[in-house]
Design brief:
about 170 residues; alpha+beta; Nuclear Transport Factor 2, Chain: A; seven-stranded mixed sheet; 4 helices
């Protein structure tokens, strides 16, 4: 009889436990919403040159991810973007965006709609002079693959490098 009672109680507990489960997975832990973008952590740079290379790579990643907030964190508020229009010796046909608001508009209205699958800058050559730096890089974005196409300038602000300018379209036609 005891064995029967034990089996009956165990069966009742099992039915109660199974009955309380609706088969749905447990709710996600509090924190980032499911729509939050997953970012791989940026490794800590060993030196300023490595930090600048990482910044250029991160800019390309943020373009592909269309992450305007991440891009804003990379730029100096007084930054400038210039399209040299592949005529580097003729500044009269350049298009310029000055200040973060204009740069943001360029990303949102021109760059993001092109929906690039990748934006890479191979062969980055960095020159550092104290708290400022320059870099010259090749460009691979969409069908574009140009040598010495982008010139970047940087300023170290509060211990962090920020982009102060980007001139693209430097590779002659």
């Amino acid at each position: 009889m005891r064995q029967f009672v034990f089996v009956a109680v165990a069966a009742a507990l099992l039915i109660a436990i199974v009955g309380c489960s609706n088969g749905a997975p447990p709710p996600p832990p509090p924190g980032n919403p499911p729509s939050a973008r997953v970012r791989t952590p940026t490794p800590v740079p060993a030196n300023d040159e490595e930090a600048l290379r990482q910044l250029i790579v991160a800019e390309g990643e943020a373009v592909v991810q269309q992450d305007i907030d991440r891009l804003q964190g990379m730029w100096a508020s007084d930054g400038v973007v210039t399209d040299a229009n592949r005529t580097p010796d003729n500044p009269s046909d350049d298009k310029t965006w000055k200040g973060w608001a204009a740069i943001r508009d360029r990303y949102v209205n021109i760059v993001f709609p092109s929906n690039p699958a990748f934006a890479e800058h191979p062969n980055i050559r960095v020159t550092i002079a104290g708290e400022t730096a320059t870099a010259l890089a090749d460009t691979k974005i969409g069908v574009t693959n140009l040598k010495d196409n982008d010139k970047w300038t940087f300023r170290k602000m509060d211990g962090q490098w920020r982009i102060t300018s980007l001139t693209f379209g430097l590779a002659p036609k």
